[in-house]
Write a structure and sequence with these properties.
By secondary structure, this protein is mostly helical. It folds into 2 domains: 198 residues, Serine Threonine Protein Phosphatase 5, Tetratricopeptide repeat; 84 residues, no CATH class. It has 16 helices and no strands. Helix 2 crosses helix 3, helix 7 runs antiparallel to helix 8 and helix 8 packs across helix 9. The protein is globular. This is Sel1 repeat family protein. InterPro entries: Sel1-like, Sel1_AlgK, TPR-like_helical_dom_sf. It holds the Pfam family Sel1. Keywords: Signal.
């Protein structure tokens, strides 16, 4: 039995606070410690919605990642960026004080840091007007992250009136300078066709740029383009490779789609045990779609041993999120009372309602 494919509406999410978009990096002259693996939110994927008319793909692009968490640098390293180190350790007041001095001396990265701190009330009272001022000064000095953060303020109307035209120009400039989150969000604007004329080929180009830079949301979205042939030739194998890459970063949507591809052998050799393992992982991360499909494979013993109590637990959990299944409801009613009670108790425990 094949697992059904997921149809998810491509959703623009461009009004999140700048902190959800901006990745601060040290100045180019300062050595940077290695980044820790980025944890996916989840979802914040966008909430799953009904399928949209073509040519929108069955993707759920999300906003760019939050700032990457980097371990605190050793204090005896004279080359360490003290502003950046204080920010990463959560010492926002210290970061603010140090960044202010450096910004006044003309450091664009310090200006961007001040924009971040003001925008997100880190060590200082939130002030979008001041955040906008510092982001603009840094953007004028050529900082690509400031350009992107300023674009997000402009498109959301924080710190001043909404100005989508300026936001698009800033995103385009940041994307040209290699900012993957700017390329990703610009791709969504070309896909949406409201702020910009719809151009799925240009959207695909920008998604490819962001995906090649390692942005998992872009990898997942571009995978759906290749799966559906939207703006690019249909290529199931390439779609699966992108899904695999995104799933390695704990992108939940990618995990579910990759699991379904593995289970059905679509664009990749069939591997049902690996698919079930991914469904388990995504289910524990809160994906109702994964929970629903995991229920099916456990109850029916597809790619794994039969475990009806565990399977119906996930069915009940998914049902609370609106992913019910009438056929599984019928099978649950036929389950022996003792096993049904165990499944219900397990679901309540998982949901924290016991």
């Amino acid at each position: 039995m094949k697992l059904p494919r997921i149809t998810i509406l491509a959703t623009l999410l461009l009004t999140a606070p700048a902190a959800a978009q901006l990745q601060i990096t040290p100045p180019a002259t300062t050595p940077s410690p290695p980044a820790e693996k980025q944890k996916a939110k989840p979802p914040a994927p966008a909430k799953k919605k009904e399928a949209a008319p073509a040519p929108k793909p069955s993707a759920s692009p999300k906003p760019a990642l939050p700032a990457t968490v980097i371990p605190a640098p050793p204090t005896d390293n004279s080359n360490v960026d003290l502003v950046y180190g204080a920010y990463q350790r959560g010492q926002y007041k210290t970061a603010f004080e140090l960044a202010t001095a450096r910004a006044q001396a003309g450091d664009p990265k310090a200006m961007t840091m001040l924009g971040e701190l003001y925008s997100n009330a880190m060590g200082i009272r939130r002030d979008y007007a001041k955040a906008l001022e510092w982001y603009k000064r840094a953007a004028d000095a050529g900082d690509r992250e400031a350009m992107f953060a300023l674009a997000m303020l402009r498109i959301s109307g924080r710190g001043g009136p909404v100005d989508k035209g300026e936001a698009v120009k800033l995103m385009a400039s940041a994307a040209k300078l290699g900012e993957p989150k700017a390329a990703y969000n610009l791709a969504l604007l070309y896909l949406d066709g409201q702020t910009l004329p719809q151009d799925v080929k240009r959207s695909a180009e920008l998604l490819r740029q962001a995906a090649d830079a390692g942005l998992p949301e872009a990898q997942y979205a571009l995978a759906t383009f290749y799966k559906e042939g939207t703006g690019v030739p249909k290529d199931p194998e390439r779609a699966v490779r992108l899904l695999q890459a995104a799933s390695l970063t704990d992108n939940v949507d990618a995990e579910v789609e990759y699991a379904i591809a593995l289970f059905n052998g679509t664009g990749t050799p069939k591997n049902q045990p690996a698919a079930v393992a991914l469904l388990r992982k995504a289910s524990r991360q809160g994906s109702a779609i994964a929970q629903n499909r995991l229920a099916w494979v456990l109850i029916n013993g597809m790619g794994t041993s039969v475990d009806k109590v565990e399977g119906f637990k996930w069915h009940l959990v998914a049902k609370t999120a609106g992913k019910g299944d009438p056929e599984l409801d019928k099978q649950l009613s036929d389950l022996p009372a003792e096993d049904r009670a165990k499944a219900e108790a397990a679901a309540r425990k998982w949901l924290g309602t016991k």
